[in-house]
Design brief:
alpha/beta; D-Maltodextrin-Binding Protein, domain 2; 19 helices; 12 strands
């Protein structure tokens, strides 16, 4: 081999050194800068939704991907039927999505397969007080840590609830709807005046089922609850004297003929209930049915639920949210999705374009929602006392509360005293809770 001149050899060596060093320097200067320093990835998101999803969900995906072009969102719409069980099966089989729309009770967070978000919140200095409180904290924290965030998506977002009333029927009856506090006696008087048997008009749907004890704050206003705060006790709650008083008041509305009978209640109204047929003057509902409220030709108004003298009056609110799988391999991308979907940027779009009741409190007055003819009635309740809904405290509530439902139905059907029936139901329900919780390690 012919030798190179010394000068040429030195020059070649320098060139080689430059060539070796160059790729590293090039990588530092020319590598693409991804938003959030998150590497390109596909994020799998599950949502409980109708076929094709809610109208806002695909636009939310598009807006997120515009903000994070390196993240592709694989949005999977899971049928409503059995959604919760499908999520639990996926978690148990280590095949869960990165994030999913969260509906389960708060004690599911203690199972260890849902990501604790506290470190992310602290790292990014995320202000959790941007959301309506205390309900968001009650709904998505476990032992002081956040495990999910509220979402401006999926039809409802923040679901404040109240007693809806039919404006047309109120006007015909010459009744002015109360704008503040009113009592159970005043409610019963309004229901009686609104009832018209010839026109098949009922004053209310309270008492048709046990739902007002489970799914509204009515029981709280009577100074009682279905379960203990941690969801593990029915005894002393489901069978308390105040619960029996609340149930007897509900049954009394049925006996007086001012409430829609159970048989008719279950047969009419479709998925939205008989109130929207125009034949029930007052009914409990929440912002998850906002679109249906706006469509009602008779005009919908919002009142608080009636108070019970001597007891604190409560408001009722709920929220859908998103949780992250603890074993996700795309946690930074998942956290980006959680902060986006729960934050003001998307919340503003969701509220103004898709009528989503965003959980971002500051947006309500900014967007005029606080003065909206319908939404203002819900917004006004934000300063009342709140509790976590009883069915969201215990993962075994649905199964173990079944005897209570049976007891109430039997009292309506047979006229038996609700007291002994609820006592027996409480014993059965408590046994069910104790058995289920004893099997959790």
């Amino acid at each position: 081999m012919k030798k190179l001149p010394v000068v040429a050899s030195v020059s070649l060596g320098a060139a080689l050194l430059t060539a070796v060093a160059a790729p590293s320097a090039w990588a530092r200067t020319a590598a693409p800068h991804y938003p959030g320093a998150i590497a390109p990835t596909t994020l799998t998101v599950w949502a409980d939704a109708p076929t094709g999803g809610y109208p806002d969900q695909q636009p939310a995906v598009a807006a997120f991907e515009k903000a994070y072009p390196q993240i592709h969102v694989n949005m999977v719409y899971v049928p409503d039927q059995g959604y919760g069980q499908k999520v639990q099966t996926a978690l148990a089989g280590n095949s869960a999505p990165d994030v999913w729309l969260y509906f389960q009770p708060v004690d599911f967070f203690g199972r260890g397969n849902i990501q604790n978000l506290t470190s992310y919140i602290k790292r990014d200095h995320l202000d959790t007080n941007q959301w309506f409180q205390p309900i968001t904290r009650l709904r998505f924290t476990y032992k002081g840590d956040y495990y999910a965030v509220p979402a401006s998506t999926g039809g409802a977002g923040m679901a404040f609830s109240g007693m809806l009333y039919n404006k047309q029927l109120f006007k015909q009856a010459g009744i002015t709807a109360p704008t503040g506090d009113y009592t159970i006696d005043q409610f019963a008087a309004m229901a009686k005046k609104l009832t018209d048997s010839k026109k098949v008009i009922y004053g209310t749907d309270i008492g048709a089922t046990q739902a007002y004890a489970f799914y509204s704050q009515l029981a709280w206003n009577f100074g009682t609850d279905v379960t203990s705060p941690d969801g593990r006790k029915f005894t002393g709650y489901m069978n308390s004297a105040n619960m029996k008083r609340a149930l007897n008041w509900m049954i009394g509305l049925q006996k007086s003929g001012v409430a829609i009978p159970p048989s008719i209640n279950s047969a009419v109204g479709g998925s939205f209930g008989p109130f929207y047929t125009g034949h029930v003057a007052m009914a409990f509902d929440g912002l998850w049915d906002l679109q249906q409220m706006r469509k009602a030709s008779f005009g919908v108004g919002v009142m608080r639920l009636p108070s019970v003298p001597g007891h604190t009056s409560y408001a009722w609110a709920d929220s859908i949210g998103y949780a992250m799988w603890a074993k996700s391999t795309h946690k930074d991308a998942a956290w980006a999705w959680l902060t986006f979907i729960s934050g003001p940027a998307w919340g503003r779009v969701a509220a103004s374009k898709y009528s989503i009741a965003t959980p971002v409190q500051a947006l309500w007055p900014q967007l005029g929602l606080a003065k909206d003819e319908l939404l203002s009635g819900f917004y006004a309740q934000r300063t009342q006392s709140f509790r976590l809904p009883s069915y969201e405290r215990s993962q075994f509530f649905g199964e173990c509360a079944a005897p209570f439902t049976t007891a109430y139905s039997k009292a309506l059907r047979t006229g038996q005293d609700i007291g002994p029936l609820v006592d027996a139901a409480t014993t059965q329900g408590q046994s069910c809770l104790d058995k289920n919780y004893s099997q959790i390690k």
